[in-house]
Amino acid sequence: MTDADLRVDLNKEWLETNGIGGYASSTVAGLNTRRYHGLLVAATEPPVGRAVLLSKLEETLVVGSERFELGANKWASGAVRPEGFRYLVAFREDPYPEWTYAAGGVEVVRRLYMVQGENTVVVHYELHGAKCELEVRPLVAFRDFHALTHANGTLNAEVKVEGRVASIQPYPDLPRLYFAHDAEAVERSGSWYYGFDYARERERGLEAVEDLYQPLVLRFRGKRGVVIASTEKRRSGAGPVETRNRADQFIVKRGEFHSIIAGYHWFGDWGRDAMIALPGLTLVRGRFDVAKSVLSAFAGCVSEGMLPSRFPDHGEQPEYNTVDAALWFFEAVRWYLEFTRDLAFVEKMMPVMRRIVEWYECGTRFGIRADADGLVKTEAGQLTWMDTAATPRRGKAVEVQALWYNALRILIELGAKDLAEMAERAKANFNAKFWNEAAGCLFDVIEEEDTSIRPNQVIALSLKYSMVSQERAERILQVVERKLVTPVGLRSLSPGDAKYRGRYVGGPAERDAAYHQGTVWPWLIGPYVSACLKVRGEAGFAFRDAGLGLAPEIYDGDAPHLARGCIAQAWSLGELLRAQWELRRASST
User: Domain range holding 490?
Assistant: First the structure.
């Protein structure tokens, strides 16, 4: 591979998950560019409590007196060494990541997969050609996946060897890591590797240099080899690979139920994201049992009329700081009923939905309540999906009203006729107060005099129960298409606005200032397509991958719309899948 190939492959990241919140991920070139990269990032408190245990495996092919290092690392000095990507001749990701290297008359094929339901990664090697030896050196981090490791004297360097299983436990607060293998020799040779440099962290304005520890060397001399790194003691044999859809990577177990990881690498399971992603990740794929389980999990955690905004990283109590997650729950239930006709389950959800409405009527946390005009108001900021300090959106936000009206109408259709007057009052006041005749679209927030052109108004058109007339809806779409639509999603703010930020770059403060100020969000393709189908009966859109079949969190607002944020986001993929399903349904009728 050339230097240009390296730059391309460093922008291509692969991801495998284990169904309980853990994952394996890096770049195609094998060079870790993030603190979140690792071959075994274990969920120690499933589906959270994630820790980078095994950062990578450094492989060296030995053919006679020649040594070919297949790995790649960037160092704090700026050097890239070794350059194993130059021996990489092929990579594929289906049904699991597979690399093919060629050096010294030998072809090395490496395959990697995760065992579902376990913190276990399996790496298979095949060697074809001349007589050779393969040395495999595990490099471990053993730290929270948000942190970094540095050389220290407290690490326990002991390596236990029991038959074909070696194990280490560098620190007592993290689980023992077992290496089951079929190597011919195990060498206890502990040493620190200093100064790995993670380019993506440096770009994000964060600490970017880490030290990793090498506890042992595995030496393979046959035509095949296997290494199984696991928090469970296993023998070297491994079961068959499960072929999974990309959508399944976000579905995890939470206790007896299922949940949805909002994004990889660093998000946990978030209520709003789960509800938006649910139809596309589960229902359009026929995973009705999973959808039911996710809805049950979140319904059981409703507190004071609010759905959990997120479950923290280390198993603490859920957090409740979102105005719209509970309202998206109604829409997820509606989609579930449309796909399954399972009225019995929906009737079990009815008391939960009624309590949500009652809390919104009388008032809940952060001053969230239905005002006298029937519209939902918040007294605190940062409660909508645009949840940064740059976009507080305090007061009455457009998509919150749309979701509130939609929720009321869903309950009315299910028999709650007493809510009809409130729904009609909300509709009348919404149309009177939110229409911006000068701009030909909807205000984003009222009571804050915000005339920003934002994509949230598309949600008001896309839901089944909309308060917007056909004539106004068409005018809104025309504005949205002129100002916000890009080939990869919808901008969060019009480029003509003084607050617009076209690139999501820099340190945390700079990125937070740009997060909802022009950044493109691919999940909004879903509401946009739904709105176009409702208003015009047709829609078209384009979508571009950030990694290998992965739907990213965000893109820059400015061309060429580089992917940013998480490489794989649940609602991005979920809404794309749902939009594709809607388009297929529309074309068949």
Answer: 484-589
